[in-house]
Structure formats: structure tokens, C-alpha cells
Amino acid sequence: MNGQQKVTTVLVVVVVTLLAAVWLNVTAMSPSQPLAGGNTDAATAPPFDASKGIKPSSFYTPPDPLPQQPAGTVLRSESIDDAPEGTAAWRLLYLSRDNTGDPVAVSALYVEPTTPPTQGNRFPLMAFAHGTTGIGVECGMSQAPFEDKTAGNEYWRTLIGPMVSAGYAVVATDYEGMGAPGNATYLLRKQSYDVLDSLRAALTLRPQRLDSLNLGVLGHSEGGYVALTTADMAAEYAPELSIRGSVAQAPGGVPPIPAAINALLGSTGGDGPTPRSGYITDLSTSWNETYPDISNAQDWYTADGAKLIPQAAKLCQGAQLDFLDKPFHDYFNSKVPIDLAKIPAMEQPLVHHSAIPILIQQGDLDVGVVPQLTRAMAVQGCALGDKVHYEAYPNDVHRSVQYTARGPFLNWLNARFSGEPMTDYCEGW
């Protein structure tokens, strides 16, 4: 079977599977629910919230006009005074590209250990792509990462901090519009520009502390999708970056068929508020801003939704769910035009062959991201010739996999950084 036949076969399998499920599942877990999972840390961890938005300071206001400099150029940086003991942290404002390729300023969090590197004299650098925290300017990683209930603190506790403790430096983009001003880019391939340019910016900021030959990417949920697209797009957009591996935990996404998109707008199975209202707020706002010739407010919103969704889009995830406290269809239509399927068709995560090894980790009890679809994404990557290793976690849900899979992904990354070849890929699952 040749490569084109393999890809066609995979797409057929994916479409058939999609008739029963979608990646952004209708019963996505609320941030206030307790975590379950195979790792006891998950059961006792503080609840996920990301409800506290932090108004961006003047630091986030980009120069006008933007300088004519390469993507990844650092526009400014400032240290963060309340970094935990053993770490040093900065905010960054750097140049990237918007969905049309024009320059845009993007902000990020950068953290490194204050202890010496465990090997050599420089730290491996990880780019972190965060999951759904909202799409507003108050909901990025860098505004107040060490303050309880902020979007940045949610992922500092679960993934960024543990990577720093493991001896990595980490740069965590806020994404366009989630700190510095810009458009919403939720679940768009363009988010990989933000990630790749954050690596360039960090290497410029701390060249004496970072090992430019050992770079990696990690993302969860929305960020898992971004980790896949980053591996897919790196060779074309940032070929100079030595990315040794990309880890995608429970990668989200939207399938490019009308029936699946309309399933997102179908019955929620209840009469009260639902977390899906927040996810569809983010998704619809992103599509409306990025593809106004295809997607608009009338396609998505009821009369009440047209008034309230723009307000909800400014809030971070936990506050969104409190604000949208009525049933889903008080805000959203039950169907959207067929033409909207053109957007996810242009935004699929794995399109090209990539030489970057990929690790996908998925909880089998996840109801926010459907495991069968994550597995299908792995199969599609293999059909493209990528080196993909898939790990299933039978006792884990969407968020607990961050805890349970932490040791395995750190071991996998250390193997990539030490130069070990990836041998256990595209087989046995």
C-alpha cells in the first residue's frame, strides 16, 4: 500500500468513527469536578479552576508600529518577582505571525531552574502549549502564573512546574490574543507559529543557559492539538530549531464533517448549564474572527447568545462557566451551515510527514477528548510516515492523565535528548 492509499484508508476509518463521537465531546468535564485517575496525586490535587482573570499591564502593549524584525525577536522582557524557590521566571513579548502571515506581538512565560543543569552546562528547553483556559487577554500563562486560580497557575502546578523541577527550562506561549492583543486562535494550526517563535524568543533571551540542540514540545488538550501541529509545521516554518520530540496529551480538535460539527450543537442531555458552552464560545469566536467570510455570529448564536457570548469570550474558563449559567441552547443554535466544515478541513493537525518523534498520551476514561479519535490521529500520523508512539492510560480522565503520564513523558523526552533512537513506534496499538 503506498502513502496516498494509507492516508485515504485512515481518513475513511476516521470519518466512520466520527459518526459516533467527536473530539470536543458533549460531556466535557467541568473544572470543578474532582480528578480521578491511575495516579493518586490526581485524586488529591487542588481543583482546576482558571477563573481568575488578570488584567494585562502595560508590559503587554506592543510597540506601534511593530518593528520590522524576524519572527521570534524579543520585543521586551521583565522578571517575575514571586517565582517559587529554585526557579527564575520572566515574561516575554515577542514577534510572531498571525493567521495571514502578518507580524503580531505574542506574550509568554519563561521559567528556568536556578540550580545547575544536570548534564553539561545548559538546560534543555521545552515549549509548552496550554489547554483550554479561555481566549481572552486575561487568560494566558504569563500574567500571574504563581497566583492561585489563574490560568497560568493551573498549568504551572500540573505540567510547567514539574518540567522545571525535572531540570528543563520552559517557555509557555500565551497564544495570540491571550495577553498581548490579537485575534482568538482556538484550535487553529496558526498556534504553532506562537509555539515555534516562543522557542526562538527564549533562545534569544537566555542563550548562555539553554541547549539549542535539545528542544522539545509538550501540550495538553487544546495544547495537545498544538503539539501535533507544531511537529507537523516545524520543518517549513522553523527549520533551524532542533526539536527532538513532541508530546501531545489528550489532543483536541474538530473533525471536518458537518454531522460531527452539528453534534457539538446537539442536545447536552440536561436542562442546566454545561461546560460545552465555554468550549463553543471559544471555538465560535475563533472561527468568526479568523474566517469571517465563512463563519459569523448569526450562524452560531441565538438572540440572547449574540449579546452574551462576546462578554463570555473575555472571561477565563471557570468564570465563563459561571457566567453562562443557563441551558446551552439559550445561547447557541442547534445547527450551523454546512460550509463551516471548510474550516476544520483546513485546520487538521497532521498533514505532512515530520521527522520529529511524537508521543501521544490518552486516558481511556476521557469524556472530553474521545480516545478512539486520538488513536485515529496516531494512525494517521503513522500513515504519513511519522514516528508516533501511542500510550493509553486505562484509568484516567482528561485531566488526570497530566499526573499519571508525567513520569513516562519525562523519561521519553530524556531519551530523545540523550540521542536514543525511537524504536517503539507505529506498532502494537
Outline: globular
Q: Return the average pLDDT rounded to an integer.
A: 90
Record field, number of beta strands: 9
CATH C-level category: Alpha Beta
Superfamily (CATH H level) name: Alpha/Beta hydrolase fold, catalytic domain
- Which percent range describes the beta-strand content? 15-25%
Kindly name the structural category: alpha/beta
Rg, Å, rounded: 20 Å
Task: Kindly report how far apart the N and C termini lie.
Answer: 19 Å
Uncertain stretches of 5 or more adjacent residues: 1-32
CATH topology: Rossmann fold
Q: Going across the biggest sheet, name each strand in turn.
A: 1-2-3-5-4-6-7-8-9
Q: What is the count of DSSP helices, taking H or I runs of 4+ residues?
A: 14
Fraction of residues in helix: 25-40%
- What string, H for helix and E for strand, traces the elements in order? HHEEEEHEHEHEHHHHHHEHEHH
Could you say what the CATH architecture is?
3-Layer(aba) Sandwich
Number of domains: 1
Question: Mind describing the biggest β-sheet?
Answer: 9 strands, mixed
